[in-house]
Design goal:
Rossmann fold; five-stranded parallel sheet; 13 helices; alpha/beta; two-stranded antiparallel ribbon; 13% strand
Amino acid sequence: MIKNVIFDLGRVMYRYWPREDLINLGYSEARADRLMEIVFDNPLWIEFDRGTYTMSAGVEKICADYPDDAADIRHIFSDGWADRVEVLMPESVNFFREVREGGYKTYVLSNFPEDGFEYIRKRDAFFFDQMDGIVVSGYEKLIKPDPAIYHLILGRYNLIPQETVFIDDMEKNINAARDLGIHGILFKNIEDCKARFKTLTATD
């Protein structure tokens, strides 16, 4: 019987498409590709999530590494970046509400920089205040798919793996959860997710 639902944030609950933002800011396709490569595909981005760097310090590190691109990098992360790029998806919020109304406990497990999460936590308090527990990589200095972060959320909130389902958009993160006995739903779109959740909980 499923009792607990753990949600990832990016591309599950939140719309997160930085390349689209670059195009909307007026960068050409080629320039957007270049900025994606040196910023969002940079191995340093993982260290933001791990909590090695704050977002602000990490951005300055990337600027120092790529001085010719520094002006554009700072422009991308000027005031309003999170409000443009990290936006709750209404259809996912509606699904979350259905889950809550179904009597399931709800949790967050996300790779997210600490300072970035602080911002959306305050901005979207109506959503996060309904959670029964939250584990964010930047605070814990652990990132998915490291098994340690799954053990952490299970232990902190006394969750039984077989009673828990984890929804994430990355297969490697789902596989890591399943290795520990947690049910997994690979998020592709909201309709597929709802159908898989209904199948999984049909005998509850």
